[in-house]
């Protein structure tokens, strides 16, 4: 491996000024003297296909996702990026069948937690809002870590200086116009990002040795890393991520915000497009980790977060290194600004709009001020936590597993009219209660506790696959898939799964929350009128919310997602 090169300090400053200055200029151009609260949170719910698809793609092709995919490739071999990118793409695809149902019952909402307040009450809302605050802060932190690692390795500046500069730049342009600034800059960022990916990956591959690398570097791989169907990769990366992606699709506010922002008739088109864009890009980036593995490269300072910038500094010429730097800055900015707008929407709508002032008395101007203050506080928190330099892949899997306790109660609440606030809340608490000790090995899972954990995990397999089938094919198919998956997996899983705490923790959370939610719901005979959700959610401003893109197509009502009427 050659000597690592760096960009001159003056060039780095120029890149930052052009990138963040241009983003700030775009934000100021769309800003308004009297900012609209609904536009600040969701763009008015009428954003068109191009910007919506680009924003969804850019938001999930983030620097942390790139680093994590490369880490997976370096750790598990060629199957690692496949497991990471393919199941991440499935997460985006899963949004549209459930998303159509969510928009049908709450067309003018701003957050999923806001809808849970209308459906159940305060405790359900705060559980979902609280989990998203935690998730978005972790996501923001991981992006700042990725940016700091980039700056620390490719420039004369330190990790801390890089984190501060990126945090200030993202806050600068997002603060003014909130979600509208985020989606508009996403469009420009994803164009630059995809262009850079197409150029950089082949250059690194051929500079590292090209096709001959797979012969000369084969000795650097273990048998599991050489195996495309590696069980090590599946149980440690693939299976936990399959479980996590459903939780991301249902529980993540950055996704929900785009779901409530896009025109209702464009939901399917938008998320299917983003599915292919994300999958192809992230799998491709992950192959950089595979290249490093075959080339025998050791991550600088033993930190796998350094892997991608290390490859760039080794194999790219100065011009391409600048392009790579812009690619990573663009990818992390597109997600960091989404985290900021997600957090601001939660505090604006769920904390102030519903719980402090109340829906009817909420002042839109005060809401915008609160949203901006939230962004400043969130950036400060991200700066503090970024100093820990956590493993990015571990952070992402942990958040997805944590949200697993929410998935069934949330989905059931949109389809099953008997689910109560008590059933929702107790189910989530039960899911978390079993997730934490299993995930972090707080208890000895040998013997009877291990068998009990495996039984719950096996049920969790059926729940995950059943819910996925339910979104696309409805209740009957979901029940068949869930039952078959549980029965088929049982002989292999029981007595075995507890040895994989990351996977088991996620699955037991699904199983426990589902069992408790169903049991408590069956005790309730009252029926909920879903029409009430539309009445209880809606715009905070009397004036029409700002639109990020002109509406140039006639609205076509889309049918409700398959599976309506669970139980």
TrEMBL record:
It is a multi-pass membrane protein. It is found in: Cell membrane. It catalyses: L-proline(in) + Na(+)(in) = L-proline(out) + Na(+)(out). It comes from the Bacteria. Signal peptide: none annotated. Pfam families: SSF. Gene3D superfamilies: Sodium/glucose cotransporter. Residues 542-567 are annotated as: Disordered. The keyword Repeat does not apply. The chain crosses the membrane at residues 6-26, 47-70, 82-99, 126-153, 159-179, 191-214, 234-251, 271-295, 315-333, 369-386, 392-415, 422-442, 448-470, 477-497, 503-523. Keywords: Cell membrane, Ion transport, Membrane, Sodium, Sodium transport, Symport, Transmembrane, Transmembrane helix, Transport. Belongs to the sodium:solute symporter (SSF) (TC 2.A.21) family. This is Sodium:proline symporter. It comes from Isoptericola cucumis. The lineage of its organism: Bacteria, Bacillati, Actinomycetota, Actinomycetes, Micrococcales.
């Amino acid at each position: 491996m050659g000597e690592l090169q760096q960009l001159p300090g003056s060039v780095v400053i120029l890149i930052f000024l052009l990138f963040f200055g241009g983003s700030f200029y775009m934000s100021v151009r769309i800003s308004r003297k009297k900012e609209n609260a609904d536009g600040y949170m969701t763009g008015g719910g009428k954003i068109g296909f191009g910007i919506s698809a680009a924003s969804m793609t850019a938001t999930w092709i983030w620097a942390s996702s790139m680093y994590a995919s490369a880490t997976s490739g370096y750790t598990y071999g060629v199957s690692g990026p496949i497991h990471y990118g393919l199941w991440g793409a499935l997460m985006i695809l899963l949004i549209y069948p459930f998303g159509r149902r969510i928009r049908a019952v709450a067309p003018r909402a701003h957050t999923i937690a806001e809808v849970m307040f209308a459906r159940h009450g305060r405790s359900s809302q705060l559980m979902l809002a609280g989990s998203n605050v935690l998730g978005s802060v972790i996501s923001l932190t991981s992006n700042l870590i990725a940016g700091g690692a980039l700056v620390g390795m490719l420039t004369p500046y330190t990790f801390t200086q890089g984190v501060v500069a990126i945090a200030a730049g993202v806050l600068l342009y997002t603060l003014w116009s909130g979600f509208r600034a985020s989606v508009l800059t996403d469009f420009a960022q994803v164009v630059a990002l995809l262009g850079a990916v197409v150029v950089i990956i082949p250059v690194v591959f051929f500079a590292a040795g090209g096709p001959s690398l797979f012969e000369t570097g084969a000795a650097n791989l273990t048998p599991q890393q050489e195996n495309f169907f590696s069980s090590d990769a599946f149980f440690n990366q693939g299976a936990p991520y399959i479980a996590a992606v459903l939780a991301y699709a249902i529980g993540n506010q950055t996704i929900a915000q785009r779901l409530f922002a896009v025109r209702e008739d464009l939901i399917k088109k938008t998320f299917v497009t983003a599915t292919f864009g994300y999958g192809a890009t992230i799998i491709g980036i992950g192959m950089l980790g595979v290249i490093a593995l075959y080339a025998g490269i050791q991550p600088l300072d033993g930190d796998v977060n350094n892997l991608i910038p290390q490859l760039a500094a080794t194999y790219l010429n100065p011009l391409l290194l600048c392009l790579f730097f812009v690619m990573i800055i663009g990818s992390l900015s597109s997600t960091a600004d989404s985290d900021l707008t997600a957090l601001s929407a939660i505090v604006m709508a769920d904390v102030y709009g519903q719980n402090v002032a109340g829906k009817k008395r909420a002042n839109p101007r005060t809401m915008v001020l609160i949203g901006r203050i939230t962004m400043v506080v969130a950036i400060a928190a991200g700066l503090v936590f970024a100093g820990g330099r956590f493993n990015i892949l571990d952070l992402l899997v942990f958040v997805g597993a944590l949200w697993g306790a929410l998935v069934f109660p949330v989905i059931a609440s949109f389809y099953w009219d008997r689910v109560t606030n008590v059933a929702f809340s107790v189910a989530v608490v039960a899911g978390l209660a079993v997730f934490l000790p299993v995930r972090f090995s707080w208890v000895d899972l040998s013997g009877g506790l291990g068998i009990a954990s495996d039984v719950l995990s096996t049920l969790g397999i059926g729940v995950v696959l059943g819910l996925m089938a339910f979104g696309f094919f409805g209740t009957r198919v979901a029940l068949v898939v869930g039952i078959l998956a549980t029965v088929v997996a049982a002989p292999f899983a029981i007595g075995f799964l507890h040895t994989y705490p990351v996977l088991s923790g996620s699955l037991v959370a699904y199983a426990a929350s589902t069992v408790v939610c169903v049991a408590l719901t069956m005790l309730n005979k009252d029926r909920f009128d879903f029409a009430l959700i539309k009445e209880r959610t809606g715009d905070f401003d009397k004036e029409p919310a700002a639109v990020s893109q002109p509406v140039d197509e006639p609205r076509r009502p889309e049918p409700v997602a398959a599976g309506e009427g669970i139980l």
